[in-house]
Amino acid sequence: MSDFLKIQGLQARIDADGTPKDILKGLDLEVPKGEIHAIMGPNGSGKSTLSYVLAGRDDYEVTGGSATFKGQDLLALEPEERAALGLFLAFQSPVELPGVNNANFLRTAVNAVRRARGEAELDAVAFLKAVRAETKHLSMSDDMLKRAVNVGFSGGEKKRNEVLQMRLLQPSFAILDETDSGLDIDALRIVAEGVNSLRSPDFSALVITHHQRLLDYIVPDRVHVMAHGRIIHSGGPDIAKTLEKQGYTQFLEAAA
Amino acid sequence: MTQNAAPALEAFVARAAGHGAALAETGLPTRRVEAWRYTPLRSIADTAWQKPAPLTAETTTALLDRLVLPETGARVVYGNGQFMDALSALPEVVRQASENVSPLKGLFSATLNTALGERGLDVRVPAGTDAGLLTLVSLSDGQDVSTHLQHRIVLEDGASLTLYDISTGEGRYIANPRFDIVVGKGATLRHVKVQRESLTGTHLAIVSADVAEKGEYDSFTLNQGSGLARHEAVVTLGAPHAMAHVNGVQIVDGQRLNDLTSMIHHAAPDGSSRQTVKTVLSDAGQGVFQGKILVDRVAQKTDGYQMNQALLLSEKAQINSKPELEIYADDVKCSHGATVGALDDEQLFYLRSRGIAEADARDMLVRAFLIDALDLVSDEGLRDLLLRSMTS
Known about the structure:
The structure holds two protein chains of two kinds. Chain A is an alpha/beta fold.
């Protein structure tokens, strides 16, 4: 099996009001091609930091370790280069972009990625056709395309807009950062369906969540438990159920 | 207070012949003059500015070619302060006018224009007539020359006109146009201006608009050129239910300074004014916004709104913003706000994480910042022209 996503000894810190704070403290993780993995862990364990570091947000300083994706040094790439390579981060709190029309944004993103991947750009008609097909799947109204990106969207609409972007950008590796937070059961099902429909031997995902609930809909191949900036335990999907019943204590004690 | 010995002033006064007394007395304002505190005129003080030679046909064509112009409507072209007959045609319904206007005491741009005034556009739109779109092109070319066009635009009661006012040039010159505007009862003048002067050019424009009952002066100014440019508007709402829009966008890069200064005078009850001005600054660009709203004691039920926002894209860029409300009536609604900020890192990262290159992501966010000011241009065709002009 060739390396797909491989993280070794990753350390990262953030500047917290002038003092550096270590968040990732030697994290190891591998996600092979075609697999969906989940990361669960208590608040403050570094789950979101991991997703931001992988996507290339520059307010985190990587102080050690490595992360490779498709054999490339992921950490050396700009965020837009990572996207072109096939990485996608569904944000926990999608940013609002007042004044940026959602449809224009989506088309700009799709064509930027298509250009970078050596594919032909979509013209307005072809794009609209593609986007309409997706919004129908996600039960999104056309109105959401006409509005400014995420402005005035409900929590569920924002998450659906993330999944819409994921579907349109056709990543080979998606990170879903607590995409289930703030979703009712119907929205959860729609979002999960959006991810499941991408499942293929060429698509992998890392699903970061607090709750086992999402994993009822997106059944992972493996589950990792994260605490104190490291993966402290890995196993099959049944771990999620154990966590839901008994909490993190046993894993934390075992790791201590 | 002023530089009375400046070569520029001496040259201006000499050119003005018998009409230079007021200018000689006023002098060239220094930064100690409050109105010019943020916009120093040092760069023009040491030059003896002369009247330019007529524009050659070749230069005219070259300058016209770089402008984004409407394909419809009437067009009038001035080159180096002179009416270019062969390139100009007025709308049929428009008549030449001969109005006398008030001298706008104490405003340097107006005083300079009054002393050296050259006859510009002089039109009257008859009552109840829609004169459509009129494009006014002002071209300049030369070294150490200056032009001082005087335009007079009168809209009779119920008349309407859209004026697309665009200027550019080549070389080192001063363009000092003046617009005296009278908007009659229930009349509407839409004044969309694009300032694209040469980087070594200076633009000192003054607009004086008097608006009658239920009349509307709806203006938008794009300041996007010139080493030094001030667009100054003085709008008087002198009768009930008069309305003014004094909106604008300034895009300032390099070492340039662009200035939008306005005075909206509510002199009658039930008037309303709206002002949204956005300035984007990069490199060592400097922006100035000075916006005064004066509400007389009689101007009850005035409804005023002013918002000015600046986006700083570099550490060397600078914005000086001076909102000023002077209110003597006790039953008015006047709000104003000012913000200065940089691009949002989170927004930038979000766009880049979707594969959009950093430079494109920045452009998208800058455009998003400007869009609500641009959206205030009601004419869709002109709004498109502005967008094209902004990116060319």
